Amino acid sequence: MSDHHTPADTSGYSHGHQPSVLASHAARTAANSCAYFLDRLAPGKRVLDLGCGPGSITLDLAERVGPTGRVVGVDFSADAIAAARATAERRRDEVTEFLVGDLFNVDVAAGSFDIVHAHQVLQHVPNPVQALEAMANYCKPDGLIVARDADYGAMAWYPQLPGMDQWLETYCEGARATGGEPFAGRRLRAWAHAAGLEVEFVGSSAWTYATPEATAWWGGSQADRVQHSNFTRRAADQGLSLDQIDHIAADWRAWGQDPDAWFFLPHGEIIATKRTA
């Protein structure tokens, strides 16, 4: 049995912000996570990035709107914001400001951003419709509200190891217990309509892990998160033993080393605007 460090609760966020999670999130870039709206960016634009995590996407967006634009990244985790600020310093960024704050109460002027962005956020909040309403409030009258969220119910992988099936069941139960919706991708348009937004674009894209390097990284990072993130505590709350948690992690690692490994992780995407009278 491996050594477990039971993580502290991190509000209602399903994953937490432990080092295992931040390391995984830091692999996200504008290119692999925001392709659906990158053509809407230009120097001088003002962008608000909500739930920015360690800032890897935020700083990529800043490169596209700088040097005359401005980007504000917001996350409720002080650890995530500290990581983001450290990365900004390494990248010599002069466009971005990172704030610790709540999505619903960001210390910025209403109606002041050209683009308000949330990546993998709406699936975690108990009130995604209200979150979209808040995003619209920060947005200029002619600005864009853009969001992308995974859909756990549409994920697929091979080989179909039992520990990974247990991972999906455990994760989804834990996410819903804290008010989240892990099948968020398919619901984005409905949530936007309920928030009174005009949906300009709805689509999808996927992360696919299929090369030996990609599967080894994905399997290893997920195994670390199984044993060293909020998943660990929530699995125990659901009655899983440490041996069962270890088995889930072991199957993730075994999957990652399998020469036939393949993982498909789909996302829903929306671009919306405020509804005009």
Characterization of this structure:
With 277 residues, the protein is of the alpha/beta class. Helices cover 39% and strands 23% of the residues. It contains 10 helices and 8 strands. It has helices spanning 19-25, 30-33, 56-65, 78-90, 128-138, 162-177, 188-194, 212-227, 230-237, 242-257, and strands at residues 46-50, 70-75, 96-100, 113-119, 139-150, 156-158, 197-209, 262-274. The radius of gyration is 19 Å and the shape is globular.
Describe this structure in a few short sentences.
The protein is α/β, with parallel strands linked by helices. It has helices spanning 19-25, 30-33, 56-65, 78-90, 128-138, 162-177, 188-194, 212-227, 230-237, 242-257, and strands at residues 46-50, 70-75, 96-100, 113-119, 139-150, 156-158, 197-209, 262-274. It is globular.
Features:
277 residues; alpha/beta; 8-stranded mixed sheet; 10 helices; 8 strands; 23% strand; globular; disordered N terminus
Residue share in β-strands: 15-25%
Main β-sheet description:
8 strands, mixed
Secondary structure class reads alpha/beta
Q: What is the H/E string? A: HHEHEHEEHEEHHEHHHE
Q: Which segments are poorly predicted (pLDDT under 50) over 5 or more consecutive residues?
A: 1-11, 14-18
Proportion of residues in helical segments: 25-40%
**Spatial separation of the terminal alpha carbons:** 61 Å
Query: What gross morphology would you assign?
Result: globular
Query: How large is the radius of gyration?
Result: 19 Å
The average pLDDT is: 92
Count the strands?
A: 8
Number of alpha- plus pi-helical segments: 10
